[in-house]
Write a structure and sequence with these properties.
Blueprint lengths: L20 H14 L4 H17 L1 H23 L3
Helix pairs in contact: 1-2
Length: about 80
């Protein structure tokens, strides 16, 4: 039995403060459609939002990491430390 007071435990501290993202995306389509957007437009909007929010950082993260590593290498080469 895991302690509820540590990360990975089974207590309330480990529960996500937001609803499951699948539930949110599923509910968002009919809500947007009821607010006047067409069903296909609402679905396209939610799928685009999920694409940008979740998948766009995946290719950007390695590029950012490489840029930070190259910057550190350049500063080390210029300072003569090594």
């Amino acid at each position: 039995m895991k302690s509820p007071d540590i990360p990975g435990g089974s207590g309330p501290c480990c529960r996500s403060p937001r609803p499951d993202l699948g539930v949110l995306a599923t509910v968002l389509v009919p809500v947007l459609a009821s607010l006047g957007a067409g069903s296909s437009v609402a679905l396209l909007g939610v799928l685009t939002w999920r694409l940008v929010q979740f998948w766009l950082p995946v290719p950007i993260a390695p590029l950012t990491y490489l840029s930070l590593q190259l910057g550190a290498l350049r500063s080390t080469a210029h300072s003569g430390v090594g």
